[in-house]
Amino acid sequence: MKLSILLIAAGLAAFPAHASERRLNQAGFPPLIQSGETTLIKRQADVLTYFFVDVFSAALFTPEEVPLTELNLTADPFRLDIYYHRDIDREDALDLAWKALRRQHSAEKLEQLAPSIEELHAQISDIREGDRYSLTLRTSPQLTLQRNGQVIFTSDDPELATAYARLWLGEGGISRKLRQKILSAR
């Protein structure tokens, strides 16, 4: 009896790891990508799960020489790829983004950033299962947003680039748990 309970518990404990591995395989993140003249390697990847539902997989790509624990969101080039496992209404996605931005910035700073953020948000449509968004920061343009491999937004505004990078990878962003896993030097 005790052995059966232990085997069931071990199987349940292994299930989330297996499910995450399956989702990451489904996302198909490559080991490296070219961003302009810079080669970025996949450093970390993880799955965001909300109430037992896999929402998306995310992978962070940086230059090999940049330690993850020292990644500077305002100076180091990087790319964050997000592969969605669920449909998400545009309004729900934008509402979540604004909530995180409000946690991270003063009302005055948000008022200053709002026109640029609204311009970026105007390019986001309903998210469908299998969609892939890529957020790339480099020196020129500062910020590029792609959907399914197509560039949908670019900006040379370094403050917008920093704000949107922090939305995903900064304190108080979209997901603390995902941020910790993506930026850990496992």
TrEMBL record:
Matching entries from InterPro entries are given as:
Chalcone_isomerase
Q: Which UniProt keywords apply?
A: Isomerase, Signal
Annotated signal sequence is 1-19
Q: Give every Chalcone isomerase domain span.
A: 27-183
Q: What Gene Ontology terms describe what this protein does at the molecular function level?
A: isomerase activity
Per the UniProt record, one Pfam family is Chalcone_3
**Identification of the protein by name:** Chalcone isomerase-like
**Species lineage, top-down?**
Bacteria, Pseudomonadati, Pseudomonadota, Gammaproteobacteria, Pseudomonadales
